[in-house]
Amino acid sequence: MATFRFELNGRPTKNKTYVVYLRVTVGGKRKLIKTMVEIARPSDFNAKCKGENWIRGGVRDAKVLNAQLADILAKAKETYKELDKEGEVTTVALAKEMNTEAVSPSFLAFARERAQMIYDNGGWRNWRKYCGLINKLDAFRKKRRMADITVADMTVELLTRFDNFLHKWENEREPGKLLHPNTIEVQFNILRTLVHRAIEVGIMEASKDPFLVFKYKGVKTIKEKLDDSEMERIINLELEEGSLIWHCKNYFLFSYYCAGIRAADLIQLRWGNVTVSGRLHYQMGKNHKERDLLLVEQAIEILRHYQREDAKATDYIFPLLSNDAEYAGYVTQADKDRMRPELRHKMYQDISSKNALINKYLKKIAEKAEIEKPLSMHISRHSFAHIAQESGAESSAIKNILGHSNLATTERYMGSFDTSKTDETLRNVFSKKQSSATATKESGATKEGQAIELLKGMTPEQIMAVISAINK
Q1: Phi, psi torsion values for 74, nearest 5 degrees
Q2: Which of 5, 33, 360, 444 has its CA 20 to 30 A from that of 327?
Q3: Where are the domains of the chain?
Q4: Which helix (H) or strand (E) holds 66?
Q5: pLDDT in tens, 382-432
Q6: Regarding the domain delimited by 228-414, which CATH topology (the fold level of the hierarchy) does it fall under?
Q7: pTM (global) more than 0.70
């Protein structure tokens, strides 16, 4: 019979953390097996816990750490059963069988726990991205016939093989095509974040970080955007007032007139976001930044279509989300941050559904306006940045109005770079060369004319004498 329990090493490591050990007792003989779980303070560990709560709930990522310990305990018990069947069970044999691979925490389990924490904290969009990566990692594991992907498995070699695997993964959104290099870059960015979090919580050594060596970079892409003439075609497009396609045109143009407000933020706008001084004030859902924009006359004209005398400040401006929905009672971003996960999930599902509906009708608008580009709500944001630049606006001003954290993001929206200065330089250089060549040509033509006039007044003998002198 064997007993298992976790103990904490009372001596801190060089990093001033405390390592959790698994104590195994077989036939009165004990053996300590080191885990990769480390905590900051001895008081964070509860050896006499009920259930699987060895790491106290107040510790950051306690759920993840407890899941890792539970996994190690389960593997230790399974190893004991296998050795017992063979009649070779001893603490030494058990410790030997539980090698680095066996006791190394499951990276997949860690990733799933982390994804669940993100979901519980309301990060539904990020949760979907994490789930996408986890599904791909699990498919990779199955293809490689691996029982699990542990922390110890996270090596440069594994990432290289995973890179090759992703390059053969079919694009779910575009059947028949493979994943775009930039989509693969996103997968590795999430994976790197998970690895760094694993290092932070102490289940991976910093020196074992595979991203110290492994690098992956996507490719530069051109952000699709409309030019001024294309925007004018949409503006002048006549549609039946009150029809769904008419509303979708309004949503797109309102976003454009408000410096490319994101679809999710537009869908959630309320009348309380419109100030009496004719401004739009709201907090961006993506990064919680405050936005305070002047409502230009074109935007105000669109709002007039949706004004109602009985409208409340908390009512949604556009007829997209229901004012009677439970989540409608959470008005400010601070309120939304305190929503129950399942309610926030429901709200984001409704927002995504409405955004998809708008984009569907924007494609019809593009056809009617004879625009070949794939029109979507987000293109209004790119188009605003591009047209603002073409109008002479400074990049820093465009950055601020878009709410970007850095100029590089804004420049990707506007285009690869501002060509106005280089265009002017080329014009100046070659216009000067052309002027010089023209002047030279005109000068040569003038001298030739003067010579002809002189020759006209000479006798044939004098002309022959001049030619002979030139040929000497």
Answers
A1: -65, -40
A2: 360
A3: 2-100, 109-212, 228-414, 426-471
A4: helix 62-86
A5: 777 777 766 665 556 555 555 545 545 545 544 444 455 545 555 565 555
A6: hpI Integrase; Chain A (1.10.443)
A7: no
